[in-house]
What we know:
By secondary structure, this protein is an alpha/beta fold. It folds into 2 domains: 18-227, Rossmann fold, CATH 3.40.50.300; 360-529 and 537-614, Nucleotidyltransferase, domain 5 (2-Layer Sandwich), CATH 3.30.420.240. 30% of the residues lie in helices and 20% in strands. A hairpin with a 6-residue loop joins β29 and β30 (572-576).
Amino acid sequence: MIHDDDGNPQYVVFTDAERRIFKPKEKLTVSQWAERHRWVAKGPAQGLWTNDLTQYLVGPMDAWNLPWVQKIIMCFAPQTGKSQAAINCMCYAVDQDPGPGMYVMPDEKAVKRISRRQIIPSLKSSPRVAELLGKKADDVSTLSINFTHGMDIMMAWASSPAVMASESVRYIFFDEPGKYPEFSGKEADPFSLGEMRTNAYPFTKKILYFSTPAEDGDAFSRLLEEEVEVMHHYEVPCPICGTFQKMEFPSIHWPKGSQADHRTVVRKKSARYTCTKCGMDWDDIDRNRAVKLGKWVPEKEIKRPVAVGFHLPSWYSPFVSLSDVAAAFLKGLQDPAKMMAFDTQHKAVPYKPVMATTDESNLLKHKTEIPPGVVPKNAVALTCGIDMQKTNFYFVVRAWDKDLTSWLIQYGTLSTWDDVENLVFNTRYEVQDSTETKGIFRAALDTGGGINADDDWTRTEEAYEWLRDNNRGVIFGIKGASKTQFQKVQVKLMDKMPRSNKPIPGGLELRLLDTHQLKDLLHYRLARKEADPETGRPADAQRFYLHSETDLAYAKQFLAEEKRRDKKTRKVKWQQIGGRDNHLLDCEVYAAACADSAWTPSIRYLAKAQEKKKDAPKPKPAPKQEAQDVRQRITGNRNRPSWYNKR
């Protein structure tokens, strides 16, 4: 108590802000604080936060409170709650231990979206944090959030070195670092730039990385390998025998295994997890019960680690059914791009691209006894890929079954546009053990540039004019896409109205091909296996065959490219080997694109249409009728009045 000069007591009245500063802090961990003060504004679990729904988030959140831990790396599958855990840590810092912060996303559009849709609503819906938000009009925006006690949170994106290098921060949140570029402009990588901003807080800084992994060898996978001192995995107790175990994908099973239809597995919810101890099968409900009682287990013991990691696959999440996991795996068996999605989105491990190591002799082992020019009897359709050169054309014709097993029918070179027209529209191939013949169902012509032999105009213009003149719905122009596409084949309209920009009916269309994915698919098909009579294993779909006279020249061109990691971008991509010709490889890529499900109507659709046509009952012939009087045919057999015959 303070007294004046006369000894009278004087009272000091503190403001609300001063009272908050002087008030002792609650001794709570992040997970405890969240259950008391965090309100979820959006999503399937709106309301007061509960750890019971996603118990596995408690470990990473409470690692924030360990004074010796400065880096927390969460390698989680999607739909597991990792972003909400980061927001809990952010709100805890605002209320309990304020300091300048930065939230980083891959690009500006993404950071504005998450700020507007998740971060700001979360701050405003939680009373303990909402009362600290700045009162000025510009204190809360999509790029900056200011608080009354001096803390602020800046929004940044990894592709901008100017934003990343702006000022010092104590807290930094790296959201989806697996999608960051390798470099921010011409400067260092985004992680190094961001971490440099925390140097002013050497003992109290906290850096949180939370992401789904991407390709092996990228910045995030290197972070997991080089920075993490202790990695943790999640173990759950069996609801029956109580044995704690790490849930691994091989313990998830479903009827018919790899031969199952993924749609049936999802519809029937038939996937189960088998306990490694007692063999009891768990459904989704049993899994959820087990996860609520789980715990994080370090893979090795280190005293007071500075950087800790947490790994969680999708099958631990209450929001992901075991059957969805099984379906994703079954889809991956048919497409290497979807297997990459299974690895990164469900197993939560960096995808390791398979480097092509097949040599010519192994490739030629795919030869059959079927001679060139003969179509296997179970083939549904023929496709053709044509690679345009300066003076000639390379081509490949391939036959396809309904399961996308394929056979090489013919390959070679063509000299003129008349030869191309004759191949695509007039050539018929005999069907094995039959009197029938088949023509080409769909062909793809590369429209790549380059000056023609007379140096008067580009081959691209020449190809466009020829395609317009031969627009019969059989041959289409194609071009390699400049970047990765969601689908392997996408349509681009070339001929449009000058003013309205509407497509001209019957005008030229191009197909843009993701050649990287299609080359992956070709090498994936080389590994597909025949049926095994001894074990009863059926043959794989999408097997790849060559005709009986396929030579070494074809094999060398097919294997003229290999997958390598680019030294500058660190991306794995297909690159030509020593300037070898790759024309027939390109033709195979184009022929495969013609059969891809993204190019409609697909081969599978065509096969179903042919089956329906075969199974349809033949129309019955009309019954024979006796010749009738004209009036009888008109009036039929109906009764006539008596006066009719007296007329």
